[in-house]
Amino acid sequence: MKGNCVVAQSGGPTAVINASACGVIQEALRSPGITGVYAAHNGILGLMREELFDLGEEAPSVIEGLRTTPAAALGSCRYKVKTEEDYRTILEVFRKHDIRYFFYIGGNDSMDTADKVNKLALKEGYEFRAMGVPKTIDNDLAHTDHCPGYGSVIKYMATMVMEAGRDTEALYTADTVNVIEAMGRNAGWIAAGTALAKRSEEDAPHIILLPEVPFDPERFKARVRHYLDTIERCVIVVSEGTKNPDGGYIAEQTGDFAKDAFGHTQLGGAASYIKAFVEAELKVKARFAIPSTIQRTGIHFASQTDSDEAYLTGQTAVRLAVAGESGKMVTLVREPGAAYACGTGLADLSAVANGEKPFPEAWIGADGYSVTEDFIDYARPLIMGEVEPEMEGGLPRFMRFERHYVKRGPTL
Amino acid sequence: MKGNCVVAQSGGPTAVINASACGVIQEALRSPGITGVYAAHNGILGLMREELFDLGEEAPSVIEGLRTTPAAALGSCRYKVKTEEDYRTILEVFRKHDIRYFFYIGGNDSMDTADKVNKLALKEGYEFRAMGVPKTIDNDLAHTDHCPGYGSVIKYMATMVMEAGRDTEALYTADTVNVIEAMGRNAGWIAAGTALAKRSEEDAPHIILLPEVPFDPERFKARVRHYLDTIERCVIVVSEGTKNPDGGYIAEQTGDFAKDAFGHTQLGGAASYIKAFVEAELKVKARFAIPSTIQRTGIHFASQTDSDEAYLTGQTAVRLAVAGESGKMVTLVREPGAAYACGTGLADLSAVANGEKPFPEAWIGADGYSVTEDFIDYARPLIMGEVEPEMEGGLPRFMRFERHYVKRGPTL
Description:
Two copies of one chain form a homodimer.
Chain A: E1 3-9, H1 17-29, E2 34-40, H2 43-48, E3 52-54, H3 60-65, H4 84-96, E4 99-106, H5 108-124, E5 129-134, H6 150-170, E6 177-182, H7 189-193, E7 207-209, H8 217-230, E8 234-239, H9 270-282, E9 286-289, H10 304-322, E10 328-334, E11 342-348, H11 349-354, H12 373-379, E12 391-392, E13 395-396
Parallel strand pairs in A: 1-2, 1-4, 4-5, 5-10, 6-8, 6-9, 7-8
Antiparallel strand pairs in A: 2-3, 10-11, 12-13
C-alpha cells in the first residue's frame, strides 16, 4: 500500500517522546511505500484542523537532533476526541491528503483515539493502517513491560533526591526535613523510582509516600521521628496522588482550573501539605520542592536506555505498518535472563486503551514507605546511560521545526 | 609557622562548595608548614563543640571525589556566633589543638565570624591565620567578580527553564503559562541568570520578575497578554524575593518557622502566587514549579568553570596563608580582554562581611522583565563546561567522610 503518513504526539511531554518521533520519521522517510511524511501540529487537534507540515522539508540534522530535544517537537495536546463527527473529520483529512498510515505517540487516551479512527476507516472501506507508539512518564500502560519516558523521569528524579539528600545531610542543624513532590496521579511508579537513589540506610529517600498506601498521620509521624532520632534528618518523597484513608487526595486543588480537559483533578501541593504537617507535628523546620513539569523533560540527564527504546518503538511501528500491521501498539518486551535485554511486541490498541498497569502491591515494602528489591531489579536497567545533548554557550541546544504546512484541501 | 589547620563550611550548600574544600584539603595536606588537617563538623557549630575530624585519615580518592559531590561534605550550619564568649570558646579549641590556620568557606556571615576570631587571636597574642573562601549561589559578595556556586546554579536553572520552555511550547493548548521560582532573597542574580536560556524571542524565559523591580500587576498582566497574543504561551521566572511596591514580599510565609536563625524571612510561594494571579486575571491555565534547594546542589549538570574556580579559591587560600597572609578572603578577578580568564585577588574579611553586591540596575532591561546583553556577557563564561560525576548503577556516586574524630581536650 502506497500513500502518505502522518505522525502526531499527544499528552504530557517527556524527555524522549521526540526520540520516538525521530524513529518514526527516519524510518518513514526511507520506506519506499510511504510517499509524504507529515506531522500533525499539536496532535489530534492539528489533524482535525488540517494543520499538517511536511517533515520531508525539514533538515535531516534537525530530525536527528530530536533524539536530544525534550518535550514534543511536533506539538502536543490534551484534546479528547468525543464525537463520531470528530472522527469523521479526521478521516476526511486522511482522505484529502491520501494519508494511509497514522502513527500516534501517546498514552491510553491516544491509543483509544487511534483505535477508533482505525475502526471507522475499516468500516468505511478506506485502506489505512494505524499504529500506536507508547509514551508516558507514568509507566501505567498495560501490555508493555515499561513505557518510554519512565526511565528518564526516574533517573532524573532519583538524582534530584540524591542531591537534595546531601543538601539535607549537610544542613540538618537548620533544615531538618526536606519534602520532594513526585508526579503520579494514580500510581506510585515515579515516587517509587526515587528509591534507586538509596544505597545505604543513611541515603535519601528515607520515606516514600505512595498513592497506593493511604496516608496515616500517626504512623507517618512515628516514622519521621525514627529518622530524626537516628540520623537527625529525613528526606521524604511524596507522590502528588497520595490519598487520605477516605480516598481524597491529601492536597486537592480548588478553583477554576482544578480539573483538566479530561476531568482529571489537577494536583500540586502535596509537598507543602507534608511540610506544614511535619513542622506543626514534629516541631522541626522543613523545606519542600515541587519539580512539577521540570521532572518530565530533563533531557540534560535522561536515560540513554530509555531514549534508545523510545526510538526503537517508533521505528518498529513504521516497519510493521509497512509490512501490513494495523490497530496495534508497539510494546516493550523484557527478555528473560540476568542481563537486561529488551525487544518489542504488539498489543491491540483497544486493549491498551482500556487497560492500566497499577504499581504492584508486591513491590511495596512491608513498612509501606519503601519498595522491594524486586522493584529495584525491575527499574535499575531502565536508567542506565546518559543522553548527551549538543551544547552551545554552556547550555543544551534543542531543535525546532520550520513547519512548512501542507496545502489545505477545500474547506471541510 | 607550623601547626594544625581546620577547614569548615557554612550556610546553604552549593554544587561546588566541596570543590573548594578539596582545594583547601589537598593543598594543606601537601604543605610542610601544616601538620594536621582537620575539619570542623557542621561549621562553626562543630568548632564550638570541639567536633573535629582528621582529614589525613580519609582516603585520597574520597577527597578527590569531593570535586563531584554536591552540598557540604564537612557538614554546614546556619549558627550565628553572637557573643564574645562564643569567640573565646572557639579560640580555646584552637589553642587546645594547636590550630594555627583556619579556612572558612562561606558567605558574608562566615567572613564576619572568621574576621572576629582572627582579631581576637591577634589581641590575645595567639599566632594564627584566618582565610576566607567565597561561597554563595546568591552571587552577592562584595569585592569579587563573582562567587563560586553561582555559575552552577544559573547553568542548571537556565537548563530547567529551557526544558520547561519546550514543555510549555509543546502543550500550550492545555497548559498555557508556566511559572518557575528562582532562589534569591534580596537580589535577582539567579533569576537573571535564567536569561541565558533565551536564544530567540520565542524562547523561555519570556518574563523575569526580579526583586529589584516592584511588582506592578497591571503592567505584568499586559506583558503576559502580549506573549499570549503573539506566541500563545508564556514562561515566567519569578524570584522568591519579588516584592510589592510597598516593599513586602509578594508571597510571605507565616507560621512558626517563618524566620531562619538570622531572622531572615523564609520565602517560598512566589510561584504559586503568580500562577493563581495569572489564572484569575487572564483566564488561562498556569502551572508552577518550585525547584527550591534542588537548584543549588545540581552537580549532575554543574559548571566545570565554576568547579575549577571553586577549587582554585580554596587552594589559593592555603598557599597564601602558608606564605603569611591572614584576615583576607580570596576573591575572583576577571582579567581584561575578550577571552574569559579569571585569576585571584584578596579582600579584607571585614570589607566582605559588611559589603554586598546588588544586581546592577544598569543590567536590568528597559521593560523591567529582562536583562541586558552586558549581563549576558558577564554571566556566559561562568557556565561553560559540564562537571561529570562518577556514575554507578545509572546514578551519580557521591563521597562521604568516615569522620575519625580528633581526641577531645579536657572539657572546656
